[in-house]
Amino acid sequence: MEISTVLLRVIGSLPWLISSLLGIVEALWRMVLARIRLIYHAAKFPGLFAWPIVGNWLLLWNGNTRGEKWHSRRKMLTPAFHFKILDQFVPVFNSNGEEFIRQLRKRADGRAFDIWPLCKLLTLDVICETIMGVRVNAQTNSNSPYVKAVNDISTIIIERALRPWELSSFIFRFSKLGRRHQQCLDILHGTTDKVIQERKAELDKLSEGRTLDVDELGRRRRVAFLDLLLLIARDGSLSDADIREEVDTFMFEGHDTTAAAISFTVFLLSRHPAVQEKILEELEATFDSSKPLETSIQELSELKYLEMVIKESLRIYPPVCAVARQINSDLPLESSNLTIPAGTTLFLNFYLLHRDPDVFPDCESFDPERFIPEQTVRRNPFSYLPFSAGSRNCIGQRFAMLELKSIVAKLVWNFRILPDPNYDPELVWELILKSQNGISVRLEERSRNKTN
Ligand code: HEM
Question: How large is the average pLDDT for residues 148-177?
Fold first, then answer.
């Protein structure tokens, strides 16, 4: 081709090239303007330091989903937390709680020990039995591959977040951490898949007129959360993979959080013997002192002082101490002339919220009386958010409160909880708020057990 022809072609496509270039420049300009606007508004708020370009991205990375999947799933799952279903779970709290007490009895010699790992095993037992309907016996068999995989995967997630180069799935897959991650997933998914297939087969065998809570021999059978999911899935709205996803979410949201809440409550009680005595008084007014403590859902809801203690513990040590939210449209704040611009990621810190001295004077001190009804009604409901608020709040909060009450009641019923004078918790925020040096307490058995 001659040079003149090439030149003519180039000149001919110039208008197209220039308009494309202008289009790109305009798009970039709009992005820059939007960014400047965001920075302009955001700068008026007190907050974390933001780096140029990446902002707070290094602290927080959130995938962008508009929430349609979440919305339809949440609607499906809400009935699974109905009072009648929770009622069936209370015996699971009781039986696993009894095993917890048996394990603790071995440590009740007045010497300090770390109660955190035992709390984790307990809540894993509870969540596996209520959500999947299987007993993993974590408390008596803490070395099982399943229990180890559950523990390891949380640590791996944290370690990976601290190694930015391993955020790439490709690099991660070939790293040592990534390989262990895959091993854990294989064990966890393998177990969930097996349970799903077994429960599905049982469901298929349900004859006309038989209900889920009765087995083929007519014996009472406990309905697990998974059974409800399988029933919902019969109209084709959930695949096996979807079901596994939901089961996994509940398994992970529902056990570390409760373990943290139980262990922090035990720590606070170890420093407040008078509070323990008040809990005991309340229990002794309701239950027969000569028997092991066995609670029903009705009795648990009547333990008002115990509830105040747990609420105060969740105030000081909220296991989910922060959440993030992305703002989809400009949000003017009524109380000021500030606007939070669309595209901002808000980081809501419940740990600090619960320490607002205007709302909770002397905020570091443990005082369950803050939760007497007269005090609670005076406060803005958004000033205390251990389970978050709004449509994405904790779906399992009633489950959690019942479990916490059941376990803490058993603990105080059986033991005097004593402080470890050489210990103070060192708080860290990993996936949840926890203490990196464990939760050290001492236990002494109450005399009612010694005479039994
Ligand atoms: C003391 C124990 C617990 C605490 C403090 C807690 C706290 C929270 C918080 C703050 C959220 C909101 C997270 C966010 O906004 O990003 C949440 C969500 C959630 N929690 Fe809990 N939780 C606890 C126990 C449980 C239990 C026992 C279960 C299940 C049995 C559970 C299941 C869930 C689920 C599935 C979600 C996600 C809800 C959704 O996005 O629709 N949680 N939890």
Answer: 90
Q: How far apart are the first and last CA of the chain?
A: 104
Ligand 1 centroid to residue 216 C-alpha, Å: 35
Cα–ligand 1 centroid distance for 258 (angstroms): 10
Q: Which residues, 6+ apart, have CB-to-CB distance to 89 below 8 Å? A: 130, 399, 402, 403
Q: Which two tokens stand for residue 232?
A: 């919902």
Structure tokens at 348: 């809501």
**Average pLDDT across the chain, whole number:** 89
CB distance 37 to 339 below 8 Å: no
Q: Quick check: helix, strand or coil at residue 326?
A: strand
Q: Is the pLDDT of residue 73 over 90?
A: no
Burial letters 275-286, b for 16+ CB under 10 A, else e = bbebbbebbeee
Best substitution site from 68, 253, 310, 312 to test ligand 1's pocket, by max atoms within 8 Å of Cβ?
A: 253
Bridge partners, residue 346, by sequence = 325
- Residues 420-440 have a mean pLDDT of 95
Q: Where are the alpha helices (DSSP H) in 63-163?
A: 68-77, 83-105, 116-127, 145-161
How would residue 266 be classed by pLDDT, with cut points 50, 70 and 90? very high
Q: Are 273 and 442 in contact (CB under 8 A)?
A: no
Spell out the residues 6+ positions from residue 274 whose beta carbon is closer than 8 angstroms to its own.
Answer: none
For 180-197, give one letter per residue: b (16+ CB within 10 A) or e. bbebbeebbeebbeebbe
pTM: 0.84
The minimum-distance atom of ligand 1 relative to the CA of 319 is 5
CA of 396 relative to ligand 1 center, distance in Å: 6
Gap between the Cα atoms of 152 and 54, Å rounded: 31
Residues 6+ apart with CB under 8 A from 349: 321, 322
Residue positions in the annotated binding site? 394
Closest alpha carbon to 94 in 260, 296, 276? 296
Of 341, 291, 321, the C-alpha closest to 386 is 321
Contact 321, 351 (CB under 8 A): yes
List, as residue ranges, the binding site for heme. 394
Q: Kindly calculate the radius of gyration of the chain based on its CA atoms and give it in whole angstroms.
A: 27
Q: CB burial class (10 A; 0-12, 13-18, 19+) of residue 384? A: buried
Instruction: Report pLDDT digits (tens) over 82-118.
Output: 888 899 899 999 999 999 999 999 999 999 999 999 9
Q: What whole-number distance in Å separates Cα of residue 359 and Cα of residue 381? A: 11
**Do 342 and 329 meet the contact criterion of CB atoms below 8 Å apart?**
yes
pLDDT of 411: 98
